[in-house]
Amino acid sequence: MASGTKSDGGIVETIKTVVYALLIAGVFRTLFFQPFWIPSESMKDTLLIGDFLFVNKMAYGYSRYSCPFAMCPFEGRILASDPVRGDVIVFRHPVNGSDMIKRLIGLPGDKIQMKDGLLYINGVVAPQEPAGVFEEVNEPQGPMRNRPRCEGGAVGEGAICKRSRYVETLPEGRKHHVLNIDDSGYGDNTDVFTVPEGHYFFMGDNRDNSQDSRYPQAGGGVGFVPAEYLIGRADRIMFSSAGTSMLYFWTWRADRYFKAVE
Q: Is the peptide bond before 45 cis (omega within 30 degrees of 0)?
C-alpha cells in the first residue's frame, strides 16, 4: 500500500514538473521571444518563404504589442534602446492588425524617396552594387502557394525565375541585399515621405513585391508605423522549410540552419 502511494506521488510530481516547465516556457516565449514563420516573398532573398525564426521582443523594450496588457498596462512604448536603421523588425500592421516583417529604412524626421528604383534618404542616394542574380524555380511556395514574380515577365511552370540582386549600403554603412524586378513600378518613383516623430518607415528587400511604407494604409499598405506597434527584431533563422508546412522536416533547407539575419 505504501509503495503504491509512493508511486502515485511520483506520478504527481512528474506531472507538476511538466506543467511548471510548460508554464515557464510560455512565460519565456511571451516576454522575450516570439516565433515567426515567413509567409510571403517580400523580404527575399534575406528571408525566404518558410523561414522559421524567433523575434527578440526585448531588443527595443516593451510596447503594448510585445507584452500582454495584463503585465504591461501602459500606452505607448518603454524603450530599452532605439531601433537602428537596417534592422529587420516584426511589427503589427497599424490598420488590419496582422504581423508584418520588413527592414527599417526611415527614422523619425527622415525624408525618404524612391527615384528610378534607388532609395534616397535625406536627399542622399543609398548606393547599390551588382551582386549577381537571384534564381529560384517557378512553382507554388509555402502554405499560401504563392508564385514568385520574375524580372522580364512570367516564366513557365518549373522554369527558373530570375531577379537582379544588389548590395545596398545605408548611410551608417550597413549593407544588405535587395532584389529588382523593374525600375518603373509604383514604388520605384515616389514623392518624398517625411517620417513623423514617434513613427518609422519600413521597406521590403524584394523591392518590387512588397506592400510597405511606400504604400498608403487606405490601399492595403503599411504607411508610417507608430513605435508602439513594434514587436521585436529578427536576429537569426532557426530552420527553413521549402514545403507547405514547417513540420515537413524532409523539406528543410540544409543551408539555412541558425543563419543570421543581415
A: yes
